[in-house]
Amino acid sequence: MTYCFVLFFFAQDPMVQKMGGGRKKTVSFSSMPSEKKVSSASDCLAFMQGGCELKKIRPNSRVYCRFYTLDPDLSCLRWEPSKKDGERARLDVSSIREVRTGKSTETFLHNGPLSEHLAEEAAFSVIHGDEYQSLDLVALSADVANIWVTGLRYLLAHPSAIGGGGSSGFGGGVLCEGGGVAVEGSLGSKIRCEWLTTEFALVDEDGHGIVTEDVAVSTICKLCPGTREAKVRLRFKEIQRSKEKLTSHVTLEEFQEAYCELCTRPDVYFLLVQLSKDRECLDPQDLRLFLETEQGLSLATTEGCWELLRRYEPSEQGKERGLLGLDGFARYLQSPECQLLDPDHHGVCQDMNLPLSHYYISTSYRSYLLDDQVHGRADLGGLIKSLQSGCRCLELGVTDGPEGEPLLGVDYGSDVPKHHHHHHHHCAPVTIRSALEVVNKYAFLTSPYPLLIYLCHRCSPAQQQTMANHLKKVFGSRLYIPEDVPVNLGGRGTALPSPEQLKGRVVIVGKKLPADHQGSDGEVSEEDEEIGGGGPLAGRRMTIPGEEDLGVVLVVPPPSQPRKLRLHRDLSDLVAIARTGSRSFYAHRTRDKQQQSPPGSPSTPGTPVPPEPPYFTLCSLGEGEAGRLTSESPEDLVMFTKRTLTRVRPSSVRLDSSNPNPQGYWKGGVQLVALNQQTPGAMLDLHRGRFLQNGGSGYVLRPAVMRDEVSYFSAHTQGCVPGVPPQTLRIKVISAHNLPKPQGSGAKGEFIDPYVVLELHGVPADCAEQRTRTAAQNQDDPLFDETFEFQVNMPELALLRFVVLDDDYIGDDFIGQFSVAFECLQPGYRNVPLLGLSGDPLPHASLFVHVVITNRRGGGKAHRRGLSVRRVGRRGRGYVTLRNTGIKVVDETFKVAGGPLKEAADLREDAQSTTASFKEQCGLPTVAKLKQCIQSLATRLQSPEGSIGAAMVLKDGYPCLEPLVNLSEPTRKVLAAYDTMIASQKQLIENADYVQERIDQVQREGMDFHEELSRLGEKEGLKGRKLGKSVESFTWNITVLKGQSDLLRGAKMESLDALRQLALACEACGLTSSSSNINSSSSAEIHYSSHPQSGRRSSTHSNGRI
């Protein structure tokens, strides 16, 4: 019996791929786009027999457009026009050794500028002959390239199909309707057919072989969740119309046809064919190889693969035989364990024992307001939603209420935007007592870590006392008061408690009486946080846009002396962290500069150093003031936040409750960026993406350069950050699935024209935005197949946001988005679940992407895509250098590091470049895994009789390959590249510890000068700005030394793991001799022994990891 299932993908006109321009929005009345439909293996071969234009790339950078065809008997490829005679302008299929995708051959790699302009997804190479020559081709689109690659690989896997003769072109094939060729059903297609037959029989209660249309539709929607019922019904009606049926009943064949057409994902099919050698199903070994080489699960086990197979394969036959078919593979790729967000980040995964100032803290701003900041009504639902989303700092505005009971509301104070409006909302007031009870109920349901309550009030002392009583009564033992942890009155010498220490505690942030104040109440300075401090808005009269006729006016007062607030002792005593304004930042900066200056110097003529407060403080800044500080004093702001909590709130001008970009303040070190959690949009999306990083706990560690006592970082860096290795992020947006119509777009029809925007947010050097083309023909399951590349200089700060929009002349409507921190990205094939405007998941809607991150541990500089990674001569390398401080004794100490830093760079660069060269010789891209290289090499080393041409032998614990027979020149080149790589890895492993210790020693000696730097500078005559520059250079040098030490340590770990993977891969591919048991050699145990695998996932876990 022959099975032929239709798997639809499309050969698009390349002109359609232009992004958006010159195209009208159209409406289709059929279920499939009006493009040429191409089915799986049989139709691929039929397409190839019909022929198409391909570009042939020559090593001399010349490009020839040729028309390529496959002979009717499938025995050879032909092309025209050609200067060669007809018999020479051909390539026998039997001479083909392999088919490579992408630009991975010498021709592509060494064509420089030309290669850069050729699409990676549309390029492929046919390797042929005993000398492994390459025919390098570029198709008009990625779809056409996939057709040729799939067809040629099928012929390689089924040599019996070649030269079969007959009109079908297959010895054992059949002729399809319309004259196309058909292939005998693969193992996977047979299992799929039997599974669908079984499922159909379960709903065919009468056993007559027919079911009603309603039953067929519901069955398909159940088997393939996310499939739209209307789409299935339309397809059945088309089938019935084509057969001129008068009944709506569905037969088994029609059921199978509709299911395979609607529920087969071509992107998953192509991937499955590539992995399964055209069997259209994966066994546990195939699945393990996929997990190791593509998904980054280096410790995957066969047992874990069996469990995955049993979990996702829908057919009983597949489960019994240990085979994962197309539907099971698609279910696995769409499962939570294949999501882009690393499952390690689903829970708390960071150190929670550091001071509070070392963390970003999820902060809400007036989340209890239902409307805007002017007419907003207090409602407890907003508080509940904020706490449920993981917010760990809530602002509560409190005003005097009737009968002595404080109310929850907005305290504008004297600098409130004054407005006049004729309409007001009337609603029942919310007491602060009821608000506190709600907060207490939901405080720790989402996160166990401390909740900060930011109190803003101008209540009378009597109502402050009432509020204090409510706080103590409602929170009880949860309330953290200063006496719980003794505070050193020296202030600066005492770090804030950690989230772990304050677990389950409520911490009050507010105004506090001076420590030496006596009496039941007293006056404190109510320092303004936004515009009362003389900012650029001060003294201006502004009209709110869109409300000119209503007379809504914002009056910004001129600079004035800080207001005074009468504060009751009972409330002050409950405040654990005192709230201050920008003056505390300027006082801190003054102290630092005066302490850096020698005593009695002209720069500080008797100016007293502002004292530090004797308690913990939180500096609260307005949006405008914080923006100025991040622009004008970025280094000072980062230094200030190392010990002091800093908060930024939205500007008072944002009467519509809109939000600022939090990334602009996070990069300046600000821990608490308050956002209106009730206002959806891109800014809130970034906020949510940031705090997914640590299990949604509301606390995320800031980058190390913002925590280390001596480190250098500027929020406006335009290049590499000292001590932080840059990384390259490469994302291929493959497809989108089950996209809904944009919310509120009912008038625009039933169809969408989606495209995807990728936004990278981070330091200025990292910020970038790219987009795919618009998917034409009204597709809600579009294929994109477009690759984008981003350079990431500060990975710990970077956020990636995917946005799906509907292209329309009226305006591109929002469909869905997903934001994620760079540190949370998983490599390989991943699904990206899309979220709606409010942050809720869109049912079954997702993107399918492929992610590659190179240079993750800093193994040398990132290389441009498509260019050969050649071993750079040491003279041509750019080595990191240290700065001159102008202090002789310090510079002499740092000078000693020059040699070790150069050696460290050479060790890392040599290991990386030789590994890249080995991958190139294997015909694989530089992002390929070493196991893939060994598999490719093993294929070349295996003779037709099954013997191997080389074997792995352990020499001093290192896996070396020794030839056993005379090998061809190309294979000898691959082995030579392998030997060079092993030699470089050996050098790195055996010398890394010694070089690293020398770098660390210089760093320790340099730190000995830290406390005495000002005095040493005075001796050298450094003053004022010159002394500040000297301190900056010193900080830079310490940061570089620490970073280079960490890079070398990470590179050694990478090399150890590479050797282990090479040895295991050689063993798995049969390239081992009887004397090379990697588990028995004592020397091997040294190099393959277990070492910390911080970023690696292994064996079976409840979250589906393998």
Automatic annotation (TrEMBL):
- Chain intervals for the UniProt region annotation (Disordered): 515-537, 585-615, 1074-1106
Tell me which Gene3D superfamilies the record gives. C2 domain, EF-hand, Phosphatidylinositol (PI) phosphodiesterase, Pleckstrin-homology domain (PH domain)/Phosphotyrosine-binding domain (PTB)
Please name the InterPro entries in this protein's record: C2_dom (IPR000008), C2_domain_sf (IPR035892), EF-hand-dom_pair (IPR011992), PH-like_dom_sf (IPR011993), PH_domain (IPR001849), PI-PLC_fam (IPR001192), PLC-like_Pdiesterase_TIM-brl (IPR017946), PLC_EF-hand-like (IPR015359)
Q: Name one Pfam family in it.
A: PI-PLC-X
> Where does this one sit in the cell?
Cytoplasm
Name the enzyme's class: hydrolase
Entry-linked SUPFAM superfamilies: C2 domain (Calcium/lipid-binding domain, CaLB) (SSF49562), EF-hand (SSF47473), PH domain-like (SSF50729), PLC-like phosphodiesterases (SSF51695)
Q: Which domain of life is it from?
A: Eukaryota
Q: Which GO terms describe its cellular component?
A: cytoplasm
Task: Indicate what this protein is called per its UniProt record.
Answer: Phosphoinositide phospholipase C
Organism expressing this protein natively: Cynoglossus semilaevis
Q: What is the lineage of its organism?
A: Eukaryota, Metazoa, Chordata, Craniata, Vertebrata
